[in-house]
Amino acid sequence: MKRTEPKCSFCGREKDETLMLIAGNNAHICDSCVAQAQQIIEKEFLQKKKTNSQVHLVFKKPFEIKEYLDQYIIGQDEAKKVMSVAVYNHYKRINNPNTPSDVEIEKANLIMVGETGTGKTLLARTIARFLNVPFTIVDATVFTEAGYVGEDVESILSRLLQSCDYDVKAAEKGIVYIDEIDKIARKNDNPSITRDVSGEGVQQGLLKLLEGSDVLVPPQGGRKHPEQKLISVNTQNILFICGGAFEGIDKVIANRTQTQVIGYNSSKRDAVDKNNLVRYVTSQDIKAFGLIPELVGRLPIVTYLDSLDKETLKLILTQPKNALIKQYKKLFEMEDIVLKFEDGVFDFIVEKAMDYKLGARGLRSICEAIMTDAMFSLPHQKHIKEHTITLNYAKETISKSKLAHLKVA
User: Fold this and answer.
1) Closest listed residue to residue 289, CA positions, set 182, 180, 206, 144
2) pLDDT at residue 368 is higher than 60
3) What average pLDDT does this structure show over 176-194?
4) Which domain covers residue 134, as residue numbers?
5) How many CB atoms lie within 10 A of CB 128?
6) Nearest to 206 by CA among 299, 290, 114
7) Which end of the chain is more exposed for a tag (fewer CB within 10 A), N or C?
8) Residues 81 and 220 in one domain
9) Are residues 46 and 74 in the same domain?
10) How many domains does the chain have?
11) Is 90 in the same domain as 216?
């Protein structure tokens, strides 16, 4: 009797028509069908992951949120406390929608005031990572009023959608951080009767997003046009966190508190800390600075970030989980090299950051200038197992770098 050649039980291909024919229990499958099955499984798994994983956020109490922030951010206890409570109440409101009909909990967006490099963006990003929600950072200065070259404010939501692979349900529980919000403040306290390309007009455009409504969003961002397919996103449960340096707001606060920023008259308000007036910032001050009342009203929670002193900058450099020094040591450890720093190097780095008023963000630039040569030359020198950064080397490297030409603040 002639023996029947095996063939694929799925597509019917003969053995000689395949690269491989895998035998099973009274059945066979070819390599082509295996590849197709794998693609189907991956597609279904990805779709399931999109619809399920992002929506279920990690719900933690304010104390737990602050404990997590403490691992990555040094100081700024007041801002951490305010943000932890605000975020907790926001997501508690989302998780308990069936409140009594006589009580409606409104969304409470937040605004942070603080100098560049004090940690505003890091705070927002760290909270979003901890809660496992979609997160995006946008710069308010790129948006312009409709009819001008630039981006529509709806592009903010486009970026949020992109961050969660266009999962609308997940995006509607996300966090948006709008940076440089102070740069769109109007220049005087009088309402504009004409178009304002990057100031009051943009503030007006932000109102609809912040208050909570259905917004038609261009998937790829940019300008909307009639032929474009738009995605509807409800912003009712999206938390908006705004931040800005608000340079000069200390003078506004000083006028309100009857305190001189510069001078010797301390009899009026002895209780006011004139060296850190930003701690007294209120919605009234932000309105006087140039944000329109309607926008300020949609940002009811106001907090501040302290300026960073030398001690705080040194702790930022060495203590958190993501501290720069720990990162460099880990990078060298991957090359089997033990990285050490001589006494005084950290103080020198901090002093330079203070001189140039670069804040915590500037620490990275200074460290990179010091470390680049070592990171370039040492990996191929297999005989070196230990490397020490000396104070003289750090000073010499900085003096030869482009940072040496920066104007001291």
Assistant:
1) 182
2) yes
3) 72
4) 62-246+281-304
5) 23
6) 299
7) N
8) yes
9) no
10) 3
11) yes
Token pair 């040194």 is found at: 314
* Nearest CA among 297, 175, 299, 177 for reference residue 235: 175
CA distances from 156 to 150, 177, 301 (A): 13, 9, 21
Q: pLDDT tens across 20-68, in order?
A: 888 888 888 888 898 888 888 877 765 555 444 444 556 788 999 999 9
- Residue 34 carries which side chain, given as an amino acid letter? V
Q: What is the CATH number of the domain that holds 150?
A: 3.40.50.300
190-248 pLDDT, tens digit each = 554 444 544 677 888 888 888 888 888 887 765 555 556 888 888 988 999 999 989 88
Distance in angstroms (rounded) separating the CA atoms of residues 324 and 322:
6
- CB-CB neighbours of 368 under 10 Å: 14
Contact 207, 270 (CB under 8 A): no
List % helix, strand, coil for the chain (3-state, nearest 5): 45, 10, 40
| Statement to judge: residues 45 and 85 lie in one domain | no
Query: Which residue do the tokens 């404990």 mark?
Result: 67
Q: In this structure, which amino acid lies at residue 332? A: F
Give the C-alpha separation, 65 to 63, whole Å.
5
Question: Is the CB of residue 179 less than 8 Å from the CB of residue 121?
Answer: yes
Contact 205, 146 (CB under 8 A): yes
On whether the CB atoms of residues 141 and 182 are closer than 8 A, the answer is no
CA distances from 172 to 90, 161, 345 (A): 13, 9, 46
